[in-house]
Amino acid sequence: MSSELQHENHLIQLRAKLNERKIKLWEVPYMQVEGDEQRHSNGDEMLRLAEQFGAELGIATELCLQTLTALQRNALDKLQSKDEFQRTGLATVRVRAPTQTGSNREFELKVQVTETGGQLCELIGQRLSLDARKIKLVCSGKIINGVRTLQEQKVSNGATVMALVMACSEEEAKRECSTYDRVHKIRSDAEMLINENDSSNFLSNEKQALLMGLTLYEKGKAAMKADSCEEALLLLLEADHDFRHCNSQLLNVVDNYALLNLDIVWCYLRLKNLNQLPDAEERLKVCELKFQQSYGKNMARVAAIRGEQSNEKILLVRLHLLKAVLYFHQNKRDDARTMFRVVETELLKLRIDDDCLSRLMECGYGMKECRIALRACSNDVEAAIEFIHSQRETRRVNERRSERERQLYRTIGHDAAEGADTPRLKLELVDQLMEMGYPEELAALALKRSANDINGALNELERNGEALQAELLRTVLVDEELQAKLEALGFGGQVAQVALKLMANDYDRATNYLLTNVQNGRCSEGLQRAIDVLERQGSSSSSRKGSVSEGTDQQLAAAAAAASDQQPSTSKRTTSTSSDTSADEAKRQERKRKKEMLDLLFKSFSQDIRTTADAHLDLPLDEEMSLLEQYKKLLGME
To answer: Which end of the chain is more exposed for a tag (fewer CB within 10 A), N or C?
Structure first.
């Protein structure tokens, strides 16, 4: 048990005793007032009080006296700072700087509340001999803005500020600079990825904020896994800032915000600042409420679906542990004992048998999936193997479904839909229409038009099939990688684009189509007609924002039908047509360069993110057990 935690325990108990008996250590008889109102501690009275409280609480008299003296000095300092603030406007701010060694550096600073957060950073940087630009300040669960005044951010006299810095060794100071830079680079990289993948402005500001929050949260979890709590807390608070730009209805569809609040409070505890940041209690309330909404009270809904040993109960263990710790620091010792007993029982139920784990890993399964499976199956190895294979199959099915959905959306131009409220296509309805003999792309497009009304989609397919075909030609977005592969076979860029549009990005069909309709470098009449129509469509869309007349629709459909049947003609243009200008080639190369840059950025950005859906359920629970034992000793539960 750390001496810091033991000292905190004494402070909590003695402060409660003083409040209970309404004893004010800054008044007579515990203070003596001499001439000019000079005050000093009354040693005899303080010793008598230390002996009395020490006997009642089981604390050595010497330790009790030291703690009471510290409380008395702290009370006097608060009175003086309050008086100074009222007279001069100069606020006293307590700064806590967590270090990598697990301790905290604490000191006070004087500052005007009309000064900015950046100026406070400068003062703290001078005190810690660090570059102020490399310090991030947190107060009441929010990152202090460097431009706004402290008063605007409700940082006033007596506030406690956490300064996220490393220990002052050269190596650790360098690491802190890296942490600061990494957090800002992560946000800018995320913004670039989100904006570049939203070329049609499909996402609303609110959904962009949600996506940014989810992205930063994933990076924060990766930092937690790497045991970098300072960087993790910064990223989690940045994510929290973005989540707060979303309305409650949007947040209610995901449980990530509950998990975010849980992880923020966990970082507070790891950085030994749980009792200093009052929003910890509020965050745990938010977390508990959302867990009940998602999983049912006491995980009843999850237990009914997935069994009593569902891995989601791990989340409940951490929530209950943090609640118990918070009760302890609020001196609600009976509540803390009750909750710690609950945590102990839950941990025993979730304990993984080491022999079972070894046997399962000998079968070739990974540590993470073994832990999850054994917890889900109460350490039954055979059942755990079945569980692992069932989970893998479920993931494969979901991945295939997601890939099919993405491909279908690209084919029918769903990314370019107007507005953010376009309904998601129901693949089961697409399958029903395919069973009736309709092509997948046309079925999806009809459902898109009818807002997932299958009867309306049937009506579209029967009455407006030709218009649907024309719309499909307009909306298919050409896959640039497939285009490059066709060009590598010797086909021109424009011809490759037309073939991929006509064949909905099906590479094999597009290749066969071109082999049939291009001979000796010349296009068939039907293919040439499709090229001409699509060229007119392109010039029309540039002047009329993508609108195409009914006549053009019919021409497109007719060109598509003709292209399917026509044999090549020697009277038409070659594939190396003059439309493949150097300007078009330059644009294509620029798109290729930009895509390569974004691919590299995404690879770098996502390399440390856990992508599996159940990654947050894979906790070894060693830290939870260690904390439980520490607090049980403090509460005399052994």
So the answer is: C
Q: Which residue has the tokens 């099906």?
A: 506
For residue 623, give the CATH number of its domain. 1.25.40
Let me know whether 288 and 310 are in one domain: yes
Residue 546 confidence (pLDDT): 40
Which segments in the chain show pLDDT lower than 50? 167-177, 199-202, 416-420, 542-551, 563-580
Tell me the C-alpha distance between 272 and 98, whole Å. Answer: 7
Inter-CA distances, 300 with 308, 451, 519, Å? 8, 35, 68
Do residues 134 and 47 both lie within one domain?
A: no
pLDDT value, residue 307: 54
DSSP bridge pairs for 163 = 137
Separation CA 52–CA 67 (nearest Å) = 14
- Alpha carbon distance 31, 510 (integer Å): 92
What is the rounded CA–CA span in Å between residue 168 and residue 101?
Answer: 11
Last residue of a domain, one of 513, 537, 561: 537
**Residues 452 and 486 reside in one and the same domain:** no
pLDDT at 130: 85
Tell whether 45 and 102 lie within a shared domain. Answer: no
- Give me the sheet containing 136-139, strands edge to edge: 104-112, 90-98, 160-164, 136-139, 142-143
Residue 584 confidence (pLDDT): 60
Considering the domain architecture, whether residues 265 and 371 belong to the same structural domain is answered as yes
Q: H/E/C letters for each residue in 381-398?
A: HHHHHHHHHHHHHHHHHH
What is the H or E stretch that residue 79 is in? helix 61-88
pLDDT of amino acid 98: 78
Burial 398-430 (b: 16+ CB within 10 A, else e): eeeeeeebebbbbbbbbbebeeeeeeebeeebb
The answer to whether 321 and 624 have CB atoms below 8 angstroms apart is yes
Dump the DSSP string for 264-301: HHHHHHHTT-GGG-THHHHHHHHHHHHHHHHH-GGGHH
Q: What are phi and psi of 439, to 5 degrees?
A: -60, 150
Q: Are strands 136-139 and 160-164 parallel, antiparallel or unpaired?
A: antiparallel
Q: Which residues pair with 95 in a beta bridge?
A: 107, 161
Please list, in sequence order, all residues whose beta carbon lies within 8 angstroms of the beta carbon of residue 479, skipping any fewer than 6 positions away. 410, 500, 505
Which segments of 330-475 does DSSP mark as H helices, in order? Answer: 333-350, 354-362, 367-376, 381-411, 427-435, 440-449, 454-463, 465-475
**Residue 404, domain member (yes or no):** no
SS3 assignment, position 621: coil
Among 37, 62, 80, the domain boundary falls at: 80
Alpha carbons 15 and 6: distance in angstroms, whole number: 14
Domain that holds residue 123: 89-168
Residue 76 is classified by DSSP as H
The CATH code of the domain that includes 95 is 3.10.20.90
Q: Please report whether residue 326 resides in a domain.
A: yes
- Domain tally, the chain: 5
- Count the residues in the chain: 638
pTM: 0.71
- How far apart (Å, rounded) are the C-alpha atoms in residues 508 and 477? 17
